[in-house]
Design brief:
Blueprint: H1 5-13, H2 57-69, H3 80-87, E1 106-107, E2 121-127, H4 132-147, E3 152-158, H5 163-177, H6 182-192, H7 203-216, H8 221-228, H9 231-246, E4 254-257, E5 261-264, H10 265-268, H11 271-286
Parallel strand pairs: 2-3
Antiparallel strand pairs: 1-5, 2-4, 4-5
Helix pairs in contact: 5-9, 7-8
Length: 288
């Protein structure tokens, strides 16, 4: 088994939120002239400002996640679709007082196009194979998919933030192209529980790790390599890149209902509540 300890440690530290690079420290101020009072001199009467302490990677990840989680505190934006829902008969509205726009879910303005047929409601999950929150949500999604209404079309889109996310996205779409969606959960387990990154600093090494995973699970290394570089996989990666940008994805898992509403674990209040909220939003969309 190929392991990359440094990458495994990095994955363990990463929060499931997009992180901006830490800005470089400001250049030190030039030394003051001999006849000019310094900032710390008694003449100025000012104390020196304390030097900012550098955050370690874990603190940065936590701060980034908190920034994402605080999205739910922003005031709701005006959205005519919400007004239309409010005008529907009582039986066609969201449960009264149960979910609040701008708190539990965010209306998307303007609404985004979907690829589902008329009469269907798209529920899209933006996720990352190495995200522990996505991994924890997996059994809830699996149970929901067994009982979801027939009008709900569930689609998954891997987030495309950086090289590590792109490597995992390529693995996801390769498994999908080979008709082995059943291995997606196993890939998440390998990363989260077995600390096998399934991605590396180079595409060549990523392919080797992913091929090894595929062959351990009954796939041919040659078939995997062909699908890995196929037109279908590359096209899906381009679409995932576009959707990541279109929905301004800053944290995963993110669920989007019919291109009109987005929500996450923090807004909904946990895994079970997230599934319940998505079901209610999808039902309201279907009744429109």
């Amino acid at each position: 088994m190929i392991r990359t300890p440094a990458l495994a440690a990095l994955l363990a530290l990463c929060a499931c939120a997009r992180q901006e690079p830490t800005p470089p420290p400001a250049a030190p101020a030039p030394a003051a002239a001999a006849n000019t009072p310094s900032a710390t001199s008694p003449q100025s009467g000012a104390l020196p400002a304390p030097a900012p302490s550098a955050q370690n990677e874990t603190q940065q990840a936590t701060a980034s996640q908190e920034s994402v989680d605080s999205e739910g505190e922003r005031p709701a934006r005006s959205d005519t679709s919400l007004e239309q829902i409010a005008e529907l008969p009582a039986g066609a509205q969201l449960p009264d007082g149960k979910w609040q726009p701008g708190v539990n879910y965010q209306p998307l303005v303007p609404a985004q196009p979907t690829s589902v047929a008329p009469g269907k409601v798209e529920v899209m999950e933006v996720f990352w194979l190495a995200c522990p929150h996505c991994y924890a949500l997996e059994p809830f999604l699996k149970n929901w998919l067994k009982t979801k209404p027939s009008y709900v079309e569930f689609v998954r889109v891997p987030v495309m933030w950086g090289p590590m996310h792109r490597a995992h996205a390529r693995l996801y779409y390769t498994l999908d192209a080979l008709g082995r969606q059943d291995l997606v959960a196993k890939a998440m387990e390998a990363i989260s529980q077995q600390h096998t990154p399934l991605a590396a600093n180079s595409e060549e090494e990523s392919l080797k790790q992913q091929q090894a995973f595929a062959t351990r699970n009954g796939l041919s290394a040659d078939d995997f390599a062909k699908a890995y570089n196929s037109f279908t996989v590359n096209s899906n990666l381009q679409r995932a890149e576009q959707l990541t940008q279109r929905y301004h994805v800053e944290g995963v898992p993110l669920l989007v209902v019919n291109g009109k509403y987005s929500t996450d674990l923090s807004k909904a209040g946990g895994d079970a509540k997230l599934i319940e909220l998505v079901s209610d939003l999808a039902a309201a969309e279907h009744r429109r």
